[in-house]
Specification:
Order of helices and strands: EEHEEHHEEHEHEEEEHEHEEEH
Bound molecules: N-(5'-phosphopyridoxyl)-D-alanine
Number of domains: 2
Helix content: 25-40%
Largest sheet: 9 strands, mixed
Radius of gyration: 19 Å
CATH class of the largest domain: Alpha Beta
CATH topology of the largest domain: D-amino Acid Aminotransferase, Chain A, domain 2
Number of helices: 8
């Protein structure tokens, strides 16, 4: 039996029901986090919760529970669903009220969470993936981790329809990020990635990679770069909680180029793995 959390309750998924007037349903009016679970433990939970708090402030949504309470809920759910390696997803919508663009500040936010077993990353991490370069059609507050993801889902479909596993986005020729990941490129052993502005989501994996790279004496340049810099990179990879560090082997779409799974990517993959919780 698969369990989920709805508000304070852990219940079988088959018993869950969403209110017709939930603003999440009408407007995508809510925020979320995806946390990877290793050896039964949620990884970097504190950083994810801090980002959830930031998203809630930016969207004027009051979080219904404290960080400690959410951690407790999530830990219990992971145990209840016997997840060793997987993902936990949690979201908070603004709450239930009759459909109106203007929200009232009086509704009670709705918290829901579910878990998923891990997908296998072995092949993609070793051999890399194909990506599709296309226009960034999203809004101008990509820093907020909102469930309103239409721009992201549209470009993900476009990438898949072109046999690519991820869409890499550019805004007027400046590379931003992936549809559900951040992008790094490497040139002469230096890492380049878009700065954490309103145009990208400041990924937790991105932050951990920058940290681990700098600790091991790699230079990291957080500056916007144009498409042709990607074209001439030595290596490139995407990062996210679910895919960790996944190399890019080829770019298609508005650019056509290939990359090796190079030594810097491999080294960072190894160093990132060292951060992860191990089975005791
Ligand atoms: N996506 N950029 C975007 C647009 C994302 O959706 C994600 C994560 C990231 C990477 O963030 P992090 O390293 O904190 O996972 C960057 C998650 C996994 C998702 O929506 O499923």
């Amino acid at each position: 039996m698969e369990y989920i959390i709805q508000n304070e309750k852990i219940i079988p998924k088959t018993e869950a029901s969403i209110h017709f007037d939930d603003r999440g349903y009408y407007f995508g009016d809510g925020i979320y986090e995806v946390v990877k679970v290793y050896a039964g433990q949620p990884f970097a939970m504190d950083l994810h919760l801090n980002r959830l708090i930031e998203s809630s402030k930016k969207l004027d949504i009051t979080l219904p529970y404290s960080k400690e309470k959410i951690t407790q809920f999530i830990t219990t759910l992971i145990e209840k669903n016997s997840i060793q390696d997987g993902l936990v997803y949690f979201q908070v919508t603004r709450g239930v009220e009759p459909r109106n663009h203007l929200y009232s500040r009086e509704s009670t936010p709705i918290f829901t969470a579910f878990t998923q077993p891990a997908q296998t990353l072995e092949d993609s991490q070793k051999n890399g993936i194909d990506v599709w370069l296309t226009d960034d059609i999203r809004w101008l507050r990509c820093d907020i981790k909102t469930i309103n993801l239409l721009g992201n889902v549209m470009v993900k479909r476009e990438a898949a329809d072109n046999k690519c596993q991820e869409a890499i986005l550019h805004r007027n020729g400046t590379i931003t990020e992936g549809s559900s990941s951040n992008l790094f490129l490497i040139k002469d052993k230096v890492l380049y990635t878009h700065p954490a502005t309103n145009l990208i989501l400041n990924g937790i994996t991105r932050q951990l990679i920058i940290d681990v790279a700098q600790k091991h004496d790699y230079s990291v340049v957080e500056e916007p770069f144009p498409v042709d810099v990607l074209e001439h990179a030595d290596e490139a990879f995407i990062s996210s909680s679910s895919v960790e560090i996944t190399p890019i082997k080829a770019v298609y779409g508005q650019l056509s180029t290939t990359f090796p799974v190079g030594p810097v990517t491999k080294d960072l993959q190894k160093k990132f793995k060292e951060l992860l919780p191990k089975v005791k």
